[in-house]
Amino acid sequence: MKIRAAVARAREPFRIEDVELDEPRDDEVLVEVEACGICHTDLSAKEHDYGTPLPAVLGHEGVGRIVALGAGVTRFAVGERVVMSFGACGRCPSCVAELPPYCRHARDFNLFGRRLAGSSPISRAGQPLTGHFFGQSSFASHAVAAAHNLVRLADDLPPELMTSLACGVQTGAGAVVNVLRAEPHDAIGVFGCGTVGLSAVMAAKVAGCARIVAVDVRAGRLEHARALGATDVVDGSQVDLGAALKKLGGLTLAFDNTGRPEVIEAAYNSLHSRGRMVLAGLSARGAGLTLDLNRLMASGRSLRGTVEGDSDPRTFIPQLIDWYRRGELRLDALVTTYPFEQINEAAADMLAGRVIKPVLRMS
């Protein structure tokens, strides 16, 4: 079928073009996309940071309605609204252990944008495009999505607010809930207050953390963080970060999504004994850390990374929806909507910090 899609080429603006989309294969569905969030991952993939083959149709935070089922799909029905999350095979040891972010085939689905057999459902003028990005490629009017990464949505849930549950929100909230396992006695620092960081702030508030320290270099982001639950804010462009964290009494937990070594080191050094830190930010190629290994050993601190907040979307996204319905997850405070045709303006506004989470409306 012929669809409209935003085609990504390196160092060029997105171009909305007519392309061909195949019918869904086994364990796939065809989704009419209603809305899709833009994530920094999409823009990094566009510039070859991840090795995603271009030209490509990107987009990995799609919400829409199923219009056709491939063979073997029994959990969903035509007409149901779904959020499309990251790709995973559902059968490897990590998937069986309910840790699909570490799927054996994650690179194929989520970075290289291809089915396990190497094919793509999208082509243009007879030539294949990368079209299975994160198992969906939802910068388009329609997407063929892997059924394993779908989560059912009720009809009353606003599609533009549900998009970021697919990646950004579940990464930030999952890092706090699933990885750090924050508790009321904790003092947590959140470094970087975009979609991921602000979601972490809200999750820390839900967890009842005694102190929630938000760190950013944009005053507007810090105002958002305070409104969403931060007890303290630190403008990293105005103060010595290490000294500021020490003045606040240090941290028991830290979550970084800046990917900046100097920020990570300052956060790590602020941890109390047996403090825990998790990283979710993309760093520059070859970036490294300088840590005092004896202090690491003697303090019992831990430092680890996370993908998608160690979340299983099929169980964690419904939990996030419960928070949203209770007013504890202020998705409306994150989202700014744009018509699909304004994808380049939306991406530019996100990179400039003018908006937190741009979401494209396809209709």
TrEMBL record:
PROSITE patterns: ADH_ZINC. It comes from the Bacteria. Residues 9-360 form the Enoyl reductase (ER) domain. It holds the Pfam family ADH_zinc_N. The keyword Zinc applies. Keywords: Metal-binding, Oxidoreductase, Zinc. The keyword Metal-binding applies. Its cofactor is Zn(2+). Belongs to the zinc-containing alcohol dehydrogenase family. This is NAD(P)-dependent alcohol dehydrogenase.
